[in-house]
Amino acid sequence: MVSGTNSQESAAVDNGGADDNNPNGAREEKMKVVVRVRPLQAKEESWPKAATDIDVHGPDTSAPATITLQENEVMWEKNGQLKILKADAVFVNGATQDRVYLSVAECVDALIAGFDCSVFVYGQTGTGKTYTMSGLQRDETTDNEVLDPTPASHGVVPRSIKRLFAEIEREKRGAAGASFSVYCSFIEIYNEKIYDILSLEAPANGKGSQSPDAKTIAANNGSFTQRARWNSTVSAKEAKNLQIRQKLDGSVFVDGMTSRSVSNDAELLQAFREVLIS
């Protein structure tokens, strides 16, 4: 998981810290790296393991690799060679969703203050990226992805949404007549092409979105495309291939991207659930 903030927009923040090297008072910070290790799956339980719960051996018993996790580093050793990865935080398999969220929560606060922020996860398939960000996890008995409704299982995105709207409500109470407009968009970058996921959500009959539990989304023609096969569905991919444009001020935007207005955290969470299962 990687997070960071970097913005030249300062109108919505306190510029008291501005200096000659940073005249706009923009907040800049180093990229933060957080490592999370998921528990072993059932098929991995037979792999040789060390005596402690933070030393894990790979499946190759002839030349096992040992990974040792410490508070701020990951040590990888194989064939006598040692590599050390430094990180801002390392979470073992017992770490809660809340603890992981708190490690990047300052990005949400910076966003509210007017800074551009980004939190993204990186890793191999099956390492827990989707669960960390959403709370969605695979049921090994059915091989389906399910969303645990309990708040304790919510990932970074649902927690950030709730934090954002809690701050909006606080601002409304503190400033009579204050109003806020919130819009959401969901895109997928696949093979260097950009696809508008929300544009595939609304059926042509206008009756609204389908339940995310059905694991389907409605295409523009009213037919349904299985979300589990969406990446390989040519007709769905051809629905809308968006282009990145640049404004005169140098900022970039996705031309033609669908935006949905949401008035509370429940509406935004519902939109997130609709496009979540892929």
Automatic annotation (TrEMBL):
Pfam families: Kinesin. GO terms for molecular function: ATP binding; microtubule binding; microtubule motor activity. It is found in: Cytoplasm. The keyword Coiled coil applies. Residues 11-25 have a biased composition (Low complexity). SMART domains: KISc. PANTHER family: CHROMOSOME-ASSOCIATED KINESIN KIF4A-RELATED. The lineage of its organism: Eukaryota, Sar, Stramenopiles, Oomycota, Peronosporomycetes. Residues 30-278 form the Kinesin motor domain. Residues 1-31 are annotated as: Disordered. GO terms for cellular component: cytoplasm; microtubule associated complex. InterPro entries: Kinesin-like_fam, Kinesin_motor_dom, Kinesin_motor_dom_sf, P-loop_NTPase. This is Kinesin motor domain-containing protein. Its main location: cytoplasm. One of its GO terms (biological process) is spindle elongation. Residues 1-10 have a biased composition (Polar residues). SUPFAM superfamilies: P-loop containing nucleoside triphosphate hydrolases (SSF52540). The keyword Signal does not apply. Keywords: ATP-binding, Coiled coil, Cytoplasm, Motor protein, Nucleotide-binding. ATP binds at residues 123-130.
